[in-house]
Automatic annotation (TrEMBL):
GO terms for biological process: lipid A biosynthetic process. It is an enzyme of class 2 (transferase). Residues 29-93 form the UDP-3-O-[3-hydroxymyristoyl] glucosamine N-acyltransferase non-repeat region domain. It comes from Leptospira noumeaensis. One of its GO terms (molecular function) is UDP-3-O-[(3R)-3-hydroxyacyl]-glucosamine N-acyltransferase activity. InterPro entries: Hexapep, LpxD, Trimer_LpxA-like_sf, UDP_GlcNAc_AcTrfase_non-rep. This is UDP-3-O-(3-hydroxymyristoyl)glucosamine N-acyltransferase. The keyword Repressor does not apply. One of its GO terms (cellular component) is membrane. The gene is lpxD. Its EC number is 2.3.1.191. Keywords: Acyltransferase, Lipid A biosynthesis, Lipid biosynthesis, Lipid metabolism, Repeat, Transferase. The keyword Transferase applies. It comes from the Bacteria. Pfam families: Hexapep, LpxD.
Length: 352
């Protein structure tokens, strides 16, 4: 693991302001960790004002803070930045640099003679690459990856163990995927006739933009006739499923165990929480947010935060819905109390 000094930090974060740093000019920092675990040679961060008291007593020699926290920690050495999380990520990457490709190829691979592999690309054990496929420069293809025919993978890709790219899949630059994910498998298309489910051929592709990151155990299916497309900058958590013919815009976030049914369209900057189910042929407008655990069956008409398990309710609508449910559940209790009061005052109950 690397060590960092003050001058390195100042170069790494040119937008930052440094406060009370005279005491750390000669310190070699050995890591970055949480407030309660940091020692005197480590850096920590204050994510919100609720952690100020803990920051005052922590052992970290240097703290990353936002401008609104500075006055509460004037005795500490501080890195003052607009976005604490972003600065923290940059520093962590210095302590734990990403693996860089070296151009090494395992002797246990099968590459079709027509395939093209870019310069400085690593290929791990038991990788197969099909005919007319193109792998970009500076990629890392880890063990057990299966790449079909006519697949294109852009420069700087990081492909995790045992991933599968079916024929004709197109992937942009700086793509990251973790282990056991699948791209371009057949969509779920069948027509019921003559007493059985007859398969509908899936002849579209999967086309993925630049700077996309996909977790483990994800599946993105090829289109039936048109392509399944994923825009630039999308980030998918583990166990996300994208069905055939979906059109996903730029910078979309989808959390774990969520799925899009066929032919869903997501605008740019949509956020879908964990364990959500989006029904087929729906459209989510740019910037729409679906709260975790929701099931959406109709296309929202406006950009908003939606939550629930039926027609798709905005958050205020869902809060009213919850109150109504509670009232209905308690109704029998109220009716019983009313009946008791009526008996005490001599009111004869009326039959409905």
């Amino acid at each position: 693991m690397n060590q960092l000094n003050l001058s390195t930090l100042q170069s790494l974060l040119p937008e930052a302001k440094f406060h009370n740093i005279e005491s750390i000019s000669s310190v070699s920092f050995t890591g970055l960790t949480s407030l309660n675990l940091a020692n005197t040679n480590e850096i920590s961060f204050v994510a919100a004002k609720t952690f100020v008291n803990e920051a005052k007593t922590c052992n970290a020699r240097l703290l990353i803070v936002s401008p609104d926290i500075v006055d509460s920690l004037t005795e500490k050495a501080l890195i003052i930045v607009p976005k604490v999380e972003l600065a923290t990520a940059k520093i962590i990457r210095q302590f734990f640099p990403e693996k860089q490709p070296s151009g090494k190829h395992s002797s246990h691979i099968v590459v079709d003679p027509s395939a093209k592999i870019g310069s400085n690309t690593d290929i791990g054990h038991f990788v197969t690459i099909g005919k007319d496929s193109v792998i970009g420069n500076d990629c890392i293809i880890e063990d057990g990856v299966k790449i079909g025919d006519r697949v294109h993978i852009g420069d700087g890709a990081r492909i995790g163990k045992n991933c599968v790219f079916f024929d004709d899949t197109i992937v942009g630059k700086r793509f990251i995927v973790f282990g056991n994910s699948s791209f371009g498998g057949d969509g779920f298309g069948f027509v019921y006739a003559e007493g059985k489910h007859n398969k509908v051929p899936q002849v579209g592709r999967v086309v993925i933009g630049d700077d996309v990151e996909v977790g483990s155990n994800c599946t993105i299916d090829r289109g039936a006739l048109t392509d399944t497309t994923i825009g630039n900058g999308c980030k998918f958590d583990n166990m996300v499923h994208i069905a055939h013919n979906c059109k996903v815009g730029d910078h979309v976030i989808i959390a774990g165990q969520s799925g899009l049914a066929g032919s869903v369209t997501l605008g740019n900057n949509v956020i879908i929480g964990g364990a959500c189910a989006i029904s087929d042929h729906l459209t989510l407008l740019e910037g729409t947010i679906i709260a975790g655990g929701s099931s959406l069956r109709t296309s929202p008409k406006t950009k908003d935060v939606y939550i629930g398990w039926d027609l798709g309710l905005t958050f205020p609508e869902f809060q009213k819905y919850r109150v109504n449910i509670k009232n209905i559940v308690n109704l029998n209790k109220w009716l019983k109390r009313i009946e008791n009061v009526e008996k005490k005052v001599g009111i004869e109950p009326k039959e409905s």
